[in-house]
Specification:
The protein contains 23 helices and nine strands. The chain is an alpha/beta fold. It has three domains: about 5-95, no CATH class; about 145-320, Rossmann fold (3-Layer(aba) Sandwich); about 325-410, Orthogonal Bundle (Helicase, Ruva Protein, domain 3). Strands 4-5-6-3-7 form a five-stranded parallel β-sheet. A two-stranded parallel sheet has the order 1-2. Strands 8-9 form a two-stranded parallel ribbon. The radius of gyration is 36 Å and the shape is elongated.
Length: about 425
């Protein structure tokens, strides 16, 4: 039994893969044969024949007929049976243009990452390939590898690092994005902790990570103080505050010791004007702005969040920086020594107990370690002056003790207020 031409084409389509040129040629042949066979049929076109019968005889002059038949005017007259037929039988162009598409191999990665170290381990032990499909966004994580290493190398802060990891995993899956892809959850963050615990550095790392991930569109990080936001008279504060916000759209505004923007005892009309505008902008720019504030938790609650009650609900991410213990202070000090190219003459003589005995004097942690190192270097310079050059830049226990004595003399040990009340410009 012979097979109809159209049946042959249908079966042929399922057996071979066409490229784009073959598809165009085949469709042209199909249309040409069908039109030539039915163009003069009123039942097909719904009109009287629009071309002379002699033009339909392709054996006499095929190309003459075809050029006339392709004229848009006569073609517009018949869109009945042919349109129906074409819908049913026209080849799937999308399929034909992608003849060699195969499902990408799926690579399953253990996603039970509990620490930043786990994430870094996955990145380093899994080579990313565009030809593979992964159960996690490995490409995004690879893009922020340097920031993750920088964060992980910071001494201590294990609880804070876990909190940042939770935020990262949430954002990298785009769970913060609304159904319409136009709205987003708040990204605004509070970092609780005393001075010298690395809050500014953490804020910079967070901003850079989210810029690389595309969560923030611009790599902008601006650290501001009260003077950057509040003017000396009403009206100008609004202008200054809005200017800072506009400059940071798509990036991060970082306000360290944010309680300086307000006070806990008296109403400050300048502060209120600033914080009211800031609160409004936190909502208006929730999709394209991240504001990070930092300071002691109690002071922030008594000042910053007290002046405008709407602020607290907009800062949904809260990280806590723990105070450094003696062991971590020792690690910080040693790290700073090595970073400047100095060494210890006898490293075993600089022990954890030395820092434990003096920890009460180091209220500002990392900042105090930097200050201590300065005084240690000064004492060292006095000790090695006029002696063999090989002794230089080798810190001894004597240098440490001398540096600590100078540190105490130059540092006011009486308790300083965490913030100054009634700061007015």
């Amino acid at each position: 039994m012979s097979t109809r031409f159209i049946d042959f084409l249908d079966s042929y389509n399922t057996k071979i893969v066409y490229n784009e040129l073959e598809n165009n040629i085949l469709n042209t042949i199909i249309q040409c044969h069908f039109i030539e066979a039915n163009l003069s049929d009123p039942a097909f076109s719904g009109k009287k024949p629009v071309l002379p019968q002699k033009k339909i005889d392709i054996s006499q002059n095929h190309f003459s007929y075809w050029h006339q038949a392709m004229d848009p005017e006569p073609f517009s007259l018949f869109q009945t049976k042919y349109s129906i037929w074409q819908t049913k039988h026209e080849a799937d162009v999308n399929f034909l243009l992608s003849p060699n598409i195969k499902p990408k191999p799926r690579v399953i990665i253990d996603a039970s990452m509990q620490t930043i170290s786990d994430v870094i381990s996955v990145i380093e032990n899994t080579e990313y390939s565009e030809n593979n499909e992964y159960n996690i966004d490995l490409k995004a994580l690879c893009n922020i590898k340097s920031e993750l290493i920088q964060l992980n190398s910071m001494i201590g802060m294990e609880s804070m690092k876990k909190s940042v990891l939770e935020q990262l995993i949430y954002f990298v899956q785009e769970l913060h994005v609304g159904k319409d892809k136009e709205t987003s959850d708040f990204k605004h963050t509070v970092i609780y902790g005393p001075p010298g615990t690395g809050k500014t550095e953490i804020a910079k790392i967070i901003g850079k990570m989210y810029s690389k991930l595309g969560i923030l569109k611009n790599n902008i990080f601006k650290k501001v103080t009260r003077n950057d936001l509040i003017a000396g008279y009403l009206g100008q504060t609004a202008i200054k505050t809005r200017k800072v916000i506009d400059e940071c759209i798509g990036g991060v505004i970082f306000i360290d010791e944010a309680y300086s923007l307000a006070n806990s005892e008296r109403e400050d009309s300048y502060s209120k004007e600033c914080l009211d505008i800031l609160c409004e902008s936190l909502s208006d720019h929730k999709n394209d702005l991240m504001v990070i504030i930092a300071g002691y938790e109690d002071e922030l609650n008594d000042t910053f969040f007290r002046v405008n009650k709407g602020l607290e609900s907009r800062f949904i991410w809260r990280f806590t920086m723990e105070e450094y213990n003696a062991k971590e202070l020792l690690q910080i000090f040693k790290k700073k020594v090595l970073e400047i190219g100095w060494i210890f003459e006898n490293e075993t003589s600089i022990v954890e107990k030395w820092f434990e005995d003096k920890k009460a004097n180091f209220k500002h942690f990392g900042r105090d370690m930097e200050l201590l190192l300065t005084y240690v270097k000064i004492g060292h310079g006095r000790r090695v002056y006029g002696k063999d050059s090989e002794l230089r830049k080798k810190i001894t226990l004597e240098d440490m003790n001398h540096g600590h004595e100078v540190f105490l003399k130059n540092k006011r040990l009486k308790k300083e207020p965490a913030f100054m009340h009634g700061i007015y410009v």
